[in-house]
Amino acid sequence: xxxLKEGGARLTQKLTFHERGVQCLAFSNDSRxxxxxxxxxxxxxAVWNLSEGLVRKSAVVKCHSVNQVRVDPYVENGVMQxxxxxxxxxxxxxxxxxxxxxxxxxxxxxxEEFQNNDFTSVTYTPYLxxxxxxxxxxxxSSDGALTAYDHKKGEFIxxxxxxxxxxxxxxxxxxxxxxxxxxxxxxxxxxxxxST
Length: 196
Known about the structure:
Order of helices and strands: EEEEEEEEEEEEEEEEE
Radius of gyration: 17 Å
Structural class: mainly beta
Shape: globular
Helix content: under 10%
Largest sheet: 4 strands, antiparallel
Strand order of the largest sheet: 3-4-5-6
Strand content: over 45%
Distance between the termini: 43 Å
Number of helices: 0
Low-confidence stretches: none
């Protein structure tokens, strides 16, 4: 970790846990914690307390490789929720109780049409009004398609999301207001509107 100051950066912490490399990471909403995931051959997940520079909880992800992690931006009050996506349509919802230092997870069965694809990106939508009255998790895949998961109902929904696609693997996805942007490993960007 480093502080950026005028004229350069100053190293403030060196965090060591993953032995083979880091695939992805994400900060908690209050920036006090961080989730890091090791590269494919390691498949370890660590939840860090950044003020202490220590791993509070760790796990080995036993299913497939993890390609991306994203922290739920809408959950706070001593709980950190996050999602990992990866190989063979792997989706895992995680919940870290900060106070009790308990880490739980739930493997989400992916839709049949995605089970042979790798999930390569994940993001959360803003809060959506009725009929959803919640926010969704958007998941991009190696074939350029996008799917949406309603964690409140515990189900995948279409609502046109599967029609949103990009040439090549979805390497990044981002949502702001009614705009969804997909970025491809081929260098393409695709912008979609969620408004009707």
